[in-house]
Every structure is written in C-alpha cells, then in structure tokens.
Design a protein that fits this description.
elongated; alpha+beta; 4-stranded antiparallel β-sheet; 7 helices; 5-stranded mixed β-sheet; single chain
C-alpha cells in the first residue's frame, strides 16, 4: 500500500507542476513578444520631450506631440508629431535608444510628393508607355540622417535612397537597352534627380505588364509590392552607389549591368 500511495503522490505532484508551469510559460512568451520583462515601456515623458526638442532645433520649426505609439516595442521613443509648416500632415519621430540619433520622416513628408512628380515629369515623355515606380529604399523614410538641417528640395533630390523602376514590354536588344538607360539617366540628372538606382526592366508579356502595380506616391521599401523577377526578360541596372556616379563611370564597362535572355 505504501508503494502505491507514493506513486499516487508522485503523479499528483507531476500534474500539479504541469498546471503551474503552463501559466508561467505563457507569461514568459508574452514578455518576449512585448519586448522582454523588465524592459522600459518607452515613450517616457522626458524622452518624448527631448526627441521633439531635437527635431525642432534641427529643422528650425516647432513640432507638437499628436500621439504616442501604444506599443513602441522597446524603443525609447516612437511618436507622431505635427507642425504648422505642414498642415494636415503627420510626422513620425523615432529613437531606438540613447546611443542612437533621433530620426524622423519629416523631409520625406515635406518633399516626397514633389520628388515623385519630378521623376514622373522627367521620364514620362521619354517612355510614355512605361510604368514608372519609385520606392524609398530607406526604412520608414528615415533618410534624414544625411542632413544636419532642412536642405531644401534641390539638395534632397541629390542625396537620397530613391530607386526608380521603368517597366516596359516588347523586344529590346542590348544596344537599345543601353541607349534607353543613358537617355533616362540623363533626363533624371538634368532635372536634378540623383536617385540611388535606376532600373529598366522589360517584362515577358503584356499580361505581366498589366498586372504590375503603379503608385501615385513613393512607397517605403517594405511597402512596395515587389519586383516581378520571374517575368523580366531583359534589364539595364545602375551598378554604383548613386546615379550620378554611375554616369560618371559609364564608360568603365560595368557601371551599368545589362542582360537580355
């Protein structure tokens, strides 16, 4: 009887232990998903005020807090602000921790629409039947790290992470692609647009071309539907750090990558 009773006790303890362990495991998983137990929640008043003060001084304009991100994910500051300079616009201000600089999408919010129009106007006359897509390769449009203040539209067009995609259909050989790339690149640069990259893609069918999504704005990189690699039969791509450098080194032979299947 004693041995049976001991077995019963051990089984009871095991079941009880499991019951206690499951809520603990659930709590630990919840902590991990929310950024870790014991970590600061973020968006403390002092951190928010410091971030707003930083961007206000940097851009010489007054920003006001509109809302705090309810789940900053361990970030020190993740907020939305407004300014009289851009009525009806929202600007994101972000700081990961005190070792990182405060970042914002203020410059993109201010100039993004003008950039999109400038690129469209520069290329639409050259490739009227093309679909033109521009995206911003920098995460969340936070490429203000290039500048110590508001540079103005013209300087912003010269230092950025915008990628320009020109999609076409039909038949193009290597010589035609090279000539078209050079024409498009010159048009962009003459209009003051020194983008990060220029891509000219020829799609394999009219159906692929029609299925391609266009935008009337510049999406952030992760918000872009994506390049239809499986349907590209010919391409010409810039192969330097920006378009101006590509054209400066155009005669080197590898500044522009060209492939026809």
């Amino acid at each position: 009887m004693r041995k049976r009773r001991n077995k019963t006790i051990r089984k009871t303890r095991t079941k009880t232990g499991r019951k206690c362990f499951l809520p603990l495991l659930t709590a630990l998983l919840a902590c991990a998903l929310l950024g870790g137990c014991g970590l600061r929640k973020g968006n403390d008043r002092a951190d928010v005020e410091e971030a707003i003060r930083f961007v206000s001084e940097k851009y010489n304009t007054e920003f006001k807090l509109k809302k705090k991100d309810a789940f900053p994910g361990g970030a020190e500051c993740d907020i939305t602000v407004t300014t009289k300079d851009l009525p009806d616009k929202e600007i994101r201000v972000f700081r990961l921790n005190d070792r990182e600089e405060v970042r914002s999408d203020y410059l993109f919010v201010k100039y993004g629409d003008d950039v999109w129009k400038r690129i469209r106007n520069a290329l639409s006359g050259i490739v009227p039947d093309a679909k033109i897509v521009t995206d911003d390769f920098y995460y969340n449009h936070f490429n203000d790290g290039y500048f110590d203040s508001d540079p103005g539209l013209e300087q912003y067009l010269l230092k950025n992470d915008f990628r320009v995609f020109v999609y076409l259909t039909g038949e193009r050989d290597e010589a035609e692609l090279r000539s078209l790339f050079e024409t498009c690149a010159d048009a962009l640069l003459q209009n003051g647009v020194n983008c990060k990259n220029l891509y000219i893609y020829v799609l394999d069918s009219k159906e692929s071309f029609l299925a391609l999504k266009e935008y009337d704005y510049i999406p952030e990189h992760t918000g872009y539907e994506g390049i239809p690699y499986d349907h590209i039969k010919a391409r010409a791509e810039s192969n330097r750090e920006n378009l101006q450098t590509t054209m400066d080194e155009y005669d080197s032979g590898d500044a522009v990558y060209i492939l026809c299947k």
